[in-house]
């Protein structure tokens, strides 16, 4: 069973993913895959270097992700160009990870932790789509309080993603991440009980 888990930046999606992993899910993290596909020597990194310039490559050959982020979060065209390089590579690697998990355990519940599900993914191959849901204003404040971003940068990063309504439209299950961790955990427990019944209803 393949679950798509999504949510905007600072929505608590990673917390929900960790709770599902604790229950026994196999979690495939799209952000980690995105780092893997731009490691030194990869075609995606060469594509980024060709498009955005040598200044984004550190002396050790790795990608300067912070510098790249300042470029693409404020420039929609640049972000789309970057996504056109990275997303296909991530999708291919994700498929390999899904196949490996299913081969190891045909009954595995595989959770694809992917922030940009509403923006870029084909939805039909997921059995269920779960949204970690917190409103945009709360997520902006979390970026300021927890990650040290200034208000302008926090807004840019939130606004660069799909709207709250776009995510809610595609979601089969919504986990409210605006409340306490215990309350979120209770919702995840209920979700896991649903996933582990025979009909998944």
TrEMBL record:
Molecular function terms, GO-annotated: dephospho-CoA kinase activity
Similarity annotation: Belongs to the CoaE family.
Pathway of action: Cofactor biosynthesis; coenzyme A biosynthesis; CoA from (R)-pantothenate: step 5/5
Protein name, entry field: Dephospho-CoA kinase
Pfam families according to UniProt: CoaE
EC supergroup of this enzyme: transferase
Record gene name: coaE
Function: Catalyzes the phosphorylation of the 3'-hydroxyl group of dephosphocoenzyme A to form coenzyme A.
Subcellular location, record wording: Cytoplasm
InterPro entries, sorted: Depp_CoAkinase, P-loop_NTPase
Enzyme Commission identifier(s): 2.7.1.24
The UniProt record lists the keyword Zinc: no
Positions that bind ATP: 10-15
Reactions catalysed according to its record: 3'-dephospho-CoA + ATP = ADP + CoA + H(+)
Major site of localization recorded for this protein: cytoplasm
Keywords: ATP-binding, Coenzyme A biosynthesis, Cytoplasm, Kinase, Nucleotide-binding, Transferase
Lineage: Bacteria, Bacillati, Actinomycetota, Actinomycetes, Micrococcales
């Amino acid at each position: 069973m393949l679950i798509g888990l999504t949510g905007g930046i600072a929505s608590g999606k990673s917390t929900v993913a960790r709770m599902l992993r604790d229950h026994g899910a196999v979690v495939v993290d799209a952000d980690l895959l995105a780092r893997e596909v731009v490691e030194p020597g990869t075609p995606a990194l060469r594509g980024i270097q060709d498009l955005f310039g040598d200044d984004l490559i550190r002396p050790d050959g790795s990608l300067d992700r912070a510098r790249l982020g300042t470029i693409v979060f404020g420039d929609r065209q640049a972000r789309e160009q970057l996504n056109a390089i990275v997303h296909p590579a991530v999708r291919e690697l994700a498929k390999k990870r899904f196949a490996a998990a299913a081969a190891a355990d045909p009954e595995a519940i595989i959770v694809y932790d992917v922030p940009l599900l509403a923006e870029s993914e084909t939805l039909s191959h997921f059995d269920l789509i779960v949204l970690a849901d917190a409103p945009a204003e709360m997520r902006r404040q979390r970026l300021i309080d927890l990650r040290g971003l200034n208000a302008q940068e926090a807004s840019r990063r939130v606004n660069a993603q799909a709207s709250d309504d776009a995510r809610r439209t595609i979601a089969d299950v919504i986990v409210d991440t605006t409340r306490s961790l215990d309350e979120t955990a209770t919702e995840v427990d209920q979700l896991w009980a649903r996933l582990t019944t025979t009909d998944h209803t």
